[in-house]
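I am writing to request your help with a piece of structural work I have in hand. I set the record out below, with my sincere thanks for your time.
___
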Amino acid sequence: MLIDRKGTVQYVIVGTNSMVVIPDISRFRMGDARLRGLRSIHTHLKGEPLSRDDLADLALLKLDLIAAVAVREGGLPGNVFIAHLVAENGTGEVWQEQEPVPIHGLDIDFTQLITSIEDEFVKKFTARRVKVEDGAILVGAYFGRGADQEDSLEELKELCSTSGLTVLDTVVQKRDRPDPKWVVGRGKLFDLVVRAQQLNAGILVFDGELEPDQVRTITDFTEMRIIDRTQVILDIFARRAVSRQGKIQVELALLKYMLPRLITKNTAMSRLTGGIGGRGPGETKLEINRRRARDRINRLEREIKQIGRERGQQRSLRMKKGLPIISIIGYTNAGKSTLLNTLTKSKVDARDMLFATLDPSSRRLRFPRDFEVIITDTVGFIRNLPKDLVTAFSATLDELKNADLLVHVVDASDPRYPARIEAVDKILGELGLSEIPVLMVFNKVDLVSEISVEQMRARHDAVFISAVDSSTLMPLVERLESQMLLVLERYRLPEPEEGLSKTLH
């Protein structure tokens, strides 16, 4: 039976000897610091205590309490097993089980008990001051062995922080293979829900890309918002997009990601076949959303192609003028935009955050030997860059294909820089850019000890700079100048005279 606080029996449920299925009770109130207002009382035919499924129902449904009455031989009631939820108290428990007592010895002031429990919830949630929709638990589900698993989870923390989420906890599970339905397994998922209730978290963020069916299954089980790494990255890009081109690219990536995930069904609408040309007024909301999404994707893809043609014409003009092209690439937040600003005295947005730059910025750079090149800042790379994002940004990334030199900026202060270099090299290979010459530049050396810099020097053929200090850039300028002179020879242009200018403009 499900009984409300007035003592009215709302449901009488008949189950089997092993399970009872609770009906939809979403119409009953439930808030961040409020329980459902229903208590569950059922029988256990073998006299066993509360099961894991009983406690799962208590936690997931936020019931006032759950009670199991043991049935003795002859059908008489025996002991009563009772549990109720508790606010976080430092023990890690989300519920409290009472000692079983004979049903005739049961003496509980139910109203007083529930009032005191909810008062504790209100105090804890008020003190935390974290909105439930912004509090997230990160889930690292890793399969097999991998040295970069911890690195990946740390990076996900940075992504969530950039996206405006408050990370309340991280949970890691290592398995031989993923659970095709639950990813981490149903038992682990239940533990995650319990932990989310303790911390008042409303979001589970998975480090990886979830299949649409997995998102639906996990959402139905947890009644929480479920997002994955790809969605966090797309959210950041959507926040950063400013120009028309950037907004088009991000919207296209979002639509391609969301199309297979449009799973909400409207049962109030029937699927009546309409007349010639499609469905009639009974078409489901789901199908309308999908069709609109496909139409919008087709329209945006045409606009992306047009942007690509315009950029192609701009590149052709540069090549006719014999202007070599340098493209600055690197992991996100390595200091690419700062380097462009210092070299060209520009004012490109260069904030200390992930993906501060989405739109490519091109500037002219004049060398001491009095010739110019075009230097371009591009969107930052990241490991496991969403494929939909790569496709949407094809017009932007095509800029790299015409570069005469790629300047790979590395954050020397990041202890994970070897993995960052590997991730960028992998993306360059996937984009077919491995044949373009690369000059590696270690940035932020002012934040690293001299010993560490010397160790990096011994391992890498690179230039070491601090992009915020123009006095450290002359070795870089000299390397760029010498390599661009070789490019000018390929363009068969006359070599500029020496000494016309000794200053960097």
